[in-house]
User: Fold this.
Amino acid sequence: MVLNRFKPGLFLLVLIATLVMSPVAFGQATTGSLAGSVASADDGALLPGVTIEALHVPTGTRYSSVTGDNGRFMIPNVKVGGPYKVTATLEGFQPSETGGITVNLGAIAEVPVFKIKMGAFEESIVVTAEADPIINPNRSGSTSAVSTDAIETLPTVNRSLQDFARTNPYFVVDAQDFSSTRLSVAGRNNRYNTIQIDGAVNNDLFGLAYTGTPGGQTDAQPVSLDALAQIQLVVSPYDVKQGGFTGGGVNVVTRSGSNDLEGSVFYSERNESLVGDGPFDRPIANFDQTLYGGRVGGRIIRDKLFFFVSGERNEKENPTGVSADGTTGTVYGGSGTGQTPSASIFRDFLIDEYGYDPGSLGDFGGQTDSDLALVKFDWTINNQNTATFRHNYIDAGRDVIADRSSTRYRFESAIYNQADETNSSVVQVNSIFSANAFNEARIGLQTIKDKRATPVTFPTVEVGGTGARSGALHAGTERFSGANSLDQDVLEITDDFTLLKGNHTFTIGTHNEIFEFKNLFLSEFYGYWYFPTLDAFMAGTPTEYRISYANGDDPRRPTQFEVRQYGIYAGDQWRVNNNLTLTYGMRLDKPDYVDKPSFNSTVQTRLGYNTSATASETTIASPRVGFNWDPTGDARQQIRGGIGIFAGRTPYVWLSNTYGNTGVESTALLCNSACITAAGLTFNPDPNNQPRSGAAGSTFSVDLIDPKFKMPHVLRATLGYDRELPWGIRGTA
Assistant:
């Protein structure tokens, strides 16, 4: 595993190397930039050599720069938020100060033009202004931001990232998703999105959770809403630093402490006593939903060292609303011993014949709990270097209950609990090498452990209904959960170097990810038996039998494989003149499938396919170009757009089965009616002594992948027009 291979000493060496080197990936935004121009108030001439100082008021952090020959300045890698006070000083001119500037995540805040007057120093000219986030020469692609104020004031039912992502019209929640967390961006599958917190990948890289984040299968959010400072939503950013998606990107930066001690607490509770009766005046079943938590941030050393801590606890217990004894609004209607059999007769037979009680005929509550914690330290080392450390923790679990309706009844011992534990750490150092050279280095380490637990160990039994896997009655171990766990380890190393030269802002960078997966997924591990009627079950005569197990000494042996993904890029933002800005560059992304699946000679001989083949390791080239043009030069309107290629990760759940189901590591047996008759199989209630061989009619399955399968990538082009309208309104088409 990644954690085993990267021992603490080696991890430290990698960290030190990353922080001191400035080599040339997927760009994960954690900061923003300040930019602007300085001109003489007397004749409008642009002034070179003006000293610019930007003060982040809450923390006292200072950034400085000097205007170039074109009178412009740029300060990359500044803290997100604000307010900032920006001061311009030049010998022989009166100082000028602009306040109230806010910097958005991953964006360049264009400070209104400084116009300084000649004359002896008397006092600074102070101007309060606001950088326009819409009509801005640095904006070209389709991006938007959600500020701290918006996070605090917009209504949210689920306290989720997805609620705020919907403020961008490209981000749509699937209406058929009960959890309201499955985001489709620009019509793409939710697995093609990327989610980053403080610049680090926070995806469910395997691709099982609707939320797309660690812990998503438990309905847990990746971080408490109270810990969020800003959210950036990207669809087609032509800055080549942005990548890792062919759907959309959700970039989040968390709050930081400041010189002032500040915090909040919250508590909410909802239960059946706070709602009215249901249809036909039937009382609502007992349920309980409790949420509480808080945050606090402040200084350890004024202007130097700051802390921030947040925590949140969610507890939910919700009934299914279905019973087989008539105590709920929806009642399972089975009776007798035919295709829609009686749940009561089935339960009694299991108890009397096998000593197994599958559960009650009444309703029961499913539990969903989650604990979220985050701690963050920000350190202003000196005027040239700042550092950030953040650790995020999730501990969550959810009872997953399906197949309970008027025609299907799953007993409570046939459900499963999905548990998750996630630890995510990030260290980042921002450095100023000179007035024109800046560096941002980051290393992240994340471990995700998902595991299913079941209330009982007993063969899976389905009876009646419309056929196998669509039975009316369900008992025993949930068929996919007897041997089901997933560990994901992710190591990231990122470095971005920015060089200012004249009208150009050059960036070179690298982002490298190392994933290791340990996937245990053996469906029907304790055996699966389907009976078309309850009479058939009582006679012990099934029509379908399935089992999966790992070959060798350990029947629960997981599949392990490692994948690496490398990325390099180079780009430039060229301010051609005051009216036109071009953004262009190239990025290269390459997967490396370190481990290969096992070779199955039988499959090669009979089918002509190589089970050891992996997906293509072809390097994907992603050229991009964007523009922003102000046709009148008065900053009241702009035309913007661009075209480029965007590449992202493959959902690794699609690749995992090619490692685990080669026919070498594991066996998946299916025995139909003919096979069952030929082998003389009858129901066996012993979960640890299930049949592992069939007869004529039995089949085994293998999974293969086309070796030409490449990393997902798409071509996107946008064109937009923004204009200032009366009363401070901005219109966009």
